């Protein structure tokens, strides 16, 4: 087996590092000092640089202006983005574009994907349901007025990331006939209203209310498994963000403890400090191994490769490690920084806020442990 990344994947990482090199984690007000959102919109100049570097079309086919890479490449770029707390909808945008490419109608693909690749259209997805704890597809009902006719959608989706700055929103819904459908809606669609919500990291979210929202049949994806795959992509991408954030936080901690002296010695030389840092390093390596397993399974599943469990099992394992691991990493980072870690002029507290958001995003570890248990019950291992 060859576990190295391909030349194309490595090139994507190098391009991402060049783009993110000038990004400062403290480029917006501190979420600890801001009662509402730290900014009304995402980082548009950074978005433009990502587009100019062809990173927004990373996972799209060449016919749509993309590079034709895979979920592993996307996770590599997301890992770099999280190191600097990049305020862009890169995960939601790329995952939604992948769903449209794989399952959408030719009309929908032609309308969205070229703009998604060059950054002139911004996509996001509603993935948290009504409360954040129930399946997102059950929060909205979808019904047809007749065979081949438009769909009508009613319901509420909460905590939709970057919705206020997006042009199109992917909304999962149930029709009462088995598989969930995925409706692609322009943000200005009649009957669709957005109310402000705020994330733990201080970002502006939206509660979507759909009141008899009409979606053309060509804008509704009813292919089996389309929503499940998008949800798994979002969860796996969240694991990549958690990994990049955790690595940056541990690096900050290593640099600080290597310079901070107590009793005439750097505190990094104290056994208790070294052991805690080593434990967190092990967490990060486990997060990394399970992330690449999940991303590989998502790519392999499209080619027919199977495993003892569906790919959802690998995604659940990755999210369990990501949720638990990133929490432990930032808590240890705060502890080893002492009071300095709580200084709002120092960026560590921002990483802590983002980590809490990522820990709970798309379900905490306990929710994915339950999902993994259900999968094991349904697919006994020989």
Poorly predicted runs of 5 or more residues? none
The N- and C-terminal alpha carbons lie at a distance of 24 Å
Radius of gyration: 21 Å
- Helical segment count: 10
Shape assignment:
globular
How would you characterize the overall build of this protein?
- With 382 residues, this protein is an alpha+beta fold.
- The chain has ten helices and ten strands.
- Helix 8 (311-337) packs antiparallel against helix 10.
- It is globular.
- The model has no long low-confidence stretch (mean pLDDT 94).
Key terms:
alpha+beta; 382 residues; globular; 48% helix; 4-stranded antiparallel sheet; 15% strand
SSE map:
Elements: H1 7-20, H2 44-52, H3 71-83, H4 90-103, H5 106-118, E1 123-125, E2 140-144, E3 151-161, E4 168-174, E5 180-186, E6 192-198, E7 204-215, E8 220-221, H6 226-259, E9 261-262, E10 265-266, H7 271-302, H8 311-337, H9 348-360, H10 365-378
Parallel strand pairs: 1-4
Antiparallel strand pairs: 2-3, 3-7, 4-5, 5-8, 6-7, 9-10
Helix pairs in contact: 1-3, 3-6, 4-5, 4-6, 6-7, 6-8, 6-9, 7-8, 8-9, 8-10
